[in-house]
Design goal:
Layout lengths: L14 E8 L5 H7 L4 E4 L1 E2 L3 E2 L2 E15 L2 E6 L2 E4 L9 H9 L19 E4 L4 H5 L14 E13 L4 E8 L9 H13 L13 E6 L2 H16 L5 E2 L2 E8 L3 H11 L4 E6 L4 E6 L2 E6 L2 E4 L2 E6 L4 H12 L2 H19 L8 E10 L3 E11 L7 H8 L7 E2 L1 H11 L10 E5 L5 E5 L3 E5 L2 E7 L8 H20 L5
Antiparallel strand pairs: 1-10, 2-5, 2-14, 3-4, 5-6, 5-9, 6-7, 8-9, 8-22, 9-10, 11-13, 12-21, 13-25, 14-15, 15-24, 16-17, 16-23, 17-20, 18-20, 19-20, 22-23, 24-25
Helix pairs in contact: 5-11, 6-11
């Protein structure tokens, strides 16, 4: 075991070094392919294209992990049970604690997003910590329950000006002294020497190892409808899973996915023993300068093969009573969730029933905003108030969670939880980890769900879950028939 990297009684200050370089000769993917990196976060929208910033963590400093009842600080060969330091702190408290050890961003770079408060995920079962519900089920894949990586070196792309900012970070109370300036200049030299390499597509055979049978999902839908008719539920979101064996490198799968399905939240995480990749359309919760945002997605159709067919499907979706009832229900749930932590009277539906189109599906989307009551709450309370999202659980939320537990054979883990980051001021930007996959030991683990209401058709709901998986399936199988 190595020496502990923090001395909590130390007066050692934090430090930040930054260097700006021209980035028109390299892309985030080129960097990811040639320089070992831990995280890449990107955004793209169907209407407007690529967003201005891409966020990359090149090197980690340490990782905060939730594993069962333990909160662990992990750094290279060192591991510390944080409950031996303070047994009363919860997981999000520890994220906040270590965020406050990070340096302040230079004032002249205030508009540049910098994830000093950690980049990572909360698994779906994080609700057990919020609601004190303990539902014992096995995991299908061996991952942490929750994990946030705190960075040593960051690379932030500004696509508007073809510039990139390299940040070197040291945290207060660290026992090791870092030559951040030398590290940052070394990174700059590596970046400026990168040369694009030709993309040689190689085909990898794929094999389905396991998938939930159609009969299972049909029966789950029928069981939920019985609960709805009995008055125990209004809506519930059961999911089905699939495991695909292939030697396709996860970075290639991510490259394929971002090409096939550009989305507002695209992410790639390297946790060494497993990788996470995804292209999520839906914000989990956002808290920026005390403004809270939810964008519930409920209501789905496949994309049409022609413009006329696409428009017809859009009109059908907007006029479908079942889809509209489900959407309204989840908008109301989102309003109520934000109302728990918002200034009274500030919750507002600013956009209602807009159609958003992706490569394989279209959705009904609304947007809810509110002002955080900063006298009593912070961004971590936004997670407590909204997690898990109603669009991946149901309503009433607790009863829907219990119903899902009874029907699904294993814990969801990363699927339908949260993926995102905190900045140095405690602002939060996060997505629901849907349209995502976990890669471990040559196997990709996929999952997708559909919202069930009183008049849902089981066959249609099963088809919807497959449509939602389609872009990810094509990215992993390289469009091979499986």
């Amino acid at each position: 075991m190595g020496a502990f990297m923090f001395d909590f009684d130390s007066k050692q200050p934090s430090e930040i070094v930054v260097k700006k370089i021209i980035s028109d000769s390299f892309t985030p993917l080129l960097v990811l392919e040639n320089i070992s990196a831990k995280v890449l976060l990107e955004s793209a929208y169907q209407e407007t294209g690529k967003e201005r910033y891409s966020l990359m963590m090149l090197k980690s400093a340490f990782t905060i992990v939730k594993l069962g009842n333990k909160y662990l600080l992990k750094q290279s060969d060192f591991e510390l049970d944080l409950k031996t330091i303070d047994e009363n702190k919860k997981f999000l408290d520890w994220l906040e604690f270590f965020r406050k050890l990070a340096p302040n961003k230079p004032e002249n770079l205030e508009g540049i997003p910098l994830p000093l408060g950690g980049m990572g995920y909360l698994g779906y079962e994080f609700f057990e910590e919020i609601e004190e519900i303990n539902l014992q089920k096995p995991h299908i894949v061996d991952t942490y329950d929750c994990a946030f990586i705190f960075g040593r070196d960051f690379l932030i792309f500004d696509h508007l000006y073809d510039e990139a900012y390299i940040f070197g970070i040291s945290y207060a109370k660290e026992t090791q002294v870092f030559d951040l300036k030398a590290e940052v200049f070394e990174i700059a030299e590596k970046l400026n020497s990168l040369k694009p390499s030709p993309f040689l597509e190689k085909k990898y055979p794929t094999q389905i190892l396991s998938e939930d049978k159609k009969e299972y999902y049909i029966q789950a839908v029928k069981s939920i409808k019985e609960e709805i008719h009995a008055g125990n539920l209004l809506q519930c979101v059961p999911s089905q899973s699939m495991q695909i064996k292939t030697n396709l490198p996860p970075l290639e799968a991510y490259r394929n996915l971002r090409h096939k399905n550009p989305s507002p939240y695209m992410f790639y995480f390297d946790f060494d023993v497993f990788k996470i990749l995804g292209a999520s359309p839906e914000v989990m919760v956002k808290c920026q300068d005390s403004i809270l945002t939810l964008r519930p997605i409920a209501g789905t159709r496949p994309r049409g093969e022609s413009i006329a067919k696409d428009n017809k499907l859009e009109n059908e979706l907007l006029n479908d009573e079942k889809e509209n009832a489900e959407h309204l229900m989840l908008v109301d749930l989102g309003r109520n969730d934000l109302g728990k932590i918002a200034i009274a009277g500030s919750v507002e539906v600013v956009e209602y029933k807009k159609i958003e189109k992706y490569s394989k599906v279209m959705h009904i989307v609304s947007e809810i905003k509110a002002k955080l009551d900063t006298q009593r709450y912070t961004s971590k309370d936004a997670i407590y108030a909204t997690f898990p999202a109603g669009t991946v659980s149901g309503a009433p939320k607790i009863q829907a969670i219990k119903t899902i537990y009874e029907l699904e054979p294993h814990k969801r883990g990363i699927y339908s939880g949260l993926v995102g980051y905190f900045d140095g001021n405690g602002n939060l930007d996060s997505a629901i980890s849907i349209r995502s996959a976990v890669y471990q030991n040559g196997v990709y683990y996929l999952q997708s769900g559909a919202g069930i209401v009183y008049d849902s058709e089981p066959e249609s709901e099963f088809t919807e879950t497959r449509n939602k998986m389609l872009a990810l399936l094509e990215a992993i199988t390289q469009k091979q028939q499986i």
